[in-house]
Amino acid sequence: MNKKIDHIGIAVRDLNNSIDFYLNVLGGKLIDRYRSEAIGVESEIAIIEINGERIELLAPTNNTTSPIARFIKQKGKGVHHIAYRVDDLDKALIELKQQGIRVLENSLRINKHGRRLIYLNPADTEGTIIEYCDYPNQADSPIPF
Fold this sequence. Notes:
By secondary structure, this protein is α+β, with helices and mostly antiparallel strands. It contains 3 helices and 8 strands. The chain has one domain (3-134): Roll (2,3-Dihydroxybiphenyl 1,2-Dioxygenase, domain 1), CATH 3.10.180.10. A hairpin with a 2-residue loop joins strand 3 and strand 4. The model has no long low-confidence stretch (mean pLDDT 92).
């Protein structure tokens, strides 16, 4: 199965300051900014594009239940996850199972841009949070604007 880095998720404490840095210092472009209060997400998200590559800035909206808040409390701000785009998420999940790699079943969802995603169990990925995703209802472009 083909895999390509889709984006890197970065946990931040102050979304506005982080957006300023990525736009003014790194020359990025703000593609979208939205809030998700879904259980297990509870974050405000800014999508930044830099030379065709995507960064997701993730700020917790609930310091008690947000997984981003827990991550920052345990590890500090910084790289939270790396997302790999796969051709077909369903087939990728079968491959992972055959390889003995577990996923976090409760993380399976579709985001507002039609991206289907799931997180692999960090116990099976040397501690790195890895997301697998696909865009089943879109052409190759991750976020059409």
